[in-house]
Give the backbone structure.
Amino acid sequence: MKNLRRSFARNRSTACLQTRTLQGLTIDLAIVALLVGGCGDAVRDRPTARVSGTVSVAGAPVSQGRLIFMPDTGTPGQPATSSITAGHYEARVPHGRLRAVFHITDEIGPTVEIFGRKVRETTNQVPQALRGGVEIEISGDRTDLDFAL
């Protein structure tokens, strides 16, 4: 009878431990679901604006490049990217404070091999003072957001 009581107590404590573990796992999964899925719609539902304009360096239109709009700290939303072609760009960006970061290069030299791939040597055309980007504020659609670098 004594052994039966010990066995019952041991099985009961194991069952309680398993129940607590399952409850903890359920709570952990619920928290993960909220963290992963809870913010996605809130970010996607933020207002956005269509922006377009020109990009020039030293007065000449940029032939090709990339423009990245990064939301500033405290501004919800996803970064937006746009190609710069013949000095013109278009993008959909979140409302708020953003940093426009430019990636503009020019092929200057011979072909070089990098990681087994042959590419033309390039140089960064963005002026040193503006390589960290330009701060802007967006509150609605704009077709005149020009950048003269």
